[in-house]
Amino acid sequence: MREVLHARELAIGIALVALAAIAQGAPAIAIAGVKPNVVLTVLIILSFFTSGVFSYFIFLFVGAVLLRFSSSFDPALLALLVTALGAFALHRRLPWHDGINNLVLIGVGTVLFYILADFHFLTIDPFTLFGEAVYNMVVGTALFFLVTYLFSRGRRNF
User: Fold this and answer.
1) Which of 33, 40, 70, 138 is most deeply buried (CB count within 10 A of its CB)?
2) How many helices (H) and strands (E) does the chain have?
């Protein structure tokens, strides 16, 4: 929503990405065998709160480092980064309210992630993909309102 994030907002964004990476590894968030891609969801949400590429790259870097500590190439990590960058590039070009744009980008982003990471998963288990997309959108809606609140606290309206 602005060009530059203040240090407080940058710290909040980094903390959200870190918490998302930790939550993504927890088995407790799975519902009926479906685990949301929390890091992708948080990265898409954060694209609405910065238009500065440098700040967004910091969020991407934190997410990538926390998800993968190995030095080998991981196509799923590349798919996550490409999908998040695509959301960053498109979020201002969608015609609806930010809340609706958030839902659309999370749903389409989940499908795009699987197309890029493992296309055969779409044909093998499309119901799990649908479940994950819906789960990501529900989690994303709640987190979008939380991030909106966190980023607007302490700001004066003129």
Assistant:
1) 40
2) 7, 0
**Amino acid 142: pLDDT:** 94
Contacts 24+ apart (CB under 8 A), 39-42: 39/63, 39/66, 39/67, 39/80, 40/80, 40/83, 40/84, 40/106, 40/109, 40/110, 40/113, 40/136, 41/106, 41/136, 41/139, 41/140, 41/143, 42/16, 42/17, 42/143
Highest mean pLDDT: which of 20-29, 45-54, 145-154?
45-54
Q: What is the dihedral of CA 138, 49, 108, 142, to 10 degrees?
A: 0
**CB 23 within 8 Å of CB 16:** no
Measured between its terminal Cα atoms, the distance across the chain in Å is 16
Give the up-direction half-sphere exposure of residue 121: CA atoms within 13 A in the CB hemisphere.
14
DSSP assignment, residue 144? H
What is the pTM for the complete model shown? 0.88
